[in-house]
Design brief:
Helix content is 7%, strand content 34%. It has 188 residues and is mainly beta. The longest helix has 6 residues, at 171-176. InterPro entries: FHA_dom, SMAD_FHA_dom_sf, TIFA.
Amino acid sequence: MSSFEDAETEETVPCLHMTFYHPCQGEKMMFRCLNFCKREQVRADEAAKFGRDSSVCRYSLMDARVSRIQFSLQFYRKLHSSECCFEIKNLSKRTKLTVNQTELGYLNKVDLPWRCVICFGDYQILAEVQEGESVDYFETHLHLAEAPILQERSLPSLPSLQPVPESGISSSIFLCQDKSPTEMDENE
């Protein structure tokens, strides 16, 4: 047998990809202490903290409007499961944190969805979880966004969304043509 066949199976590492955006990044350089485009290992039993206090936070944001400790991410394994997840906790007494549409007050925490947008103040962070088997540590991979992650735009009032049938043709198409939908055989 070759050494390749005897080698330990390589374990994949969970990775949290985070893309940061702030409208004043070009002028104020609030992300200058973050290590972009290089994966960093974090021990599984450590909370990854984000905020302006570099003595406490692993990820420092250079902005006086950011709390000393803004939020933390904790890696954990679900009870009676091999599934690993992250939870996010708001550690700011002054600023609410939103994860997708869920608003978190001070000390509130939720499971981090596999893909979500974290917002506080003018900060927008796209978080994407890449699964892995390791339970000893996880990795973070930080990126810098050139444009806003969330685009605020005023949309004209849209008609209420209606379910689309399996045929893929919405009944609202027929209603717009002043024709009522007719029942069809699947084979037609």
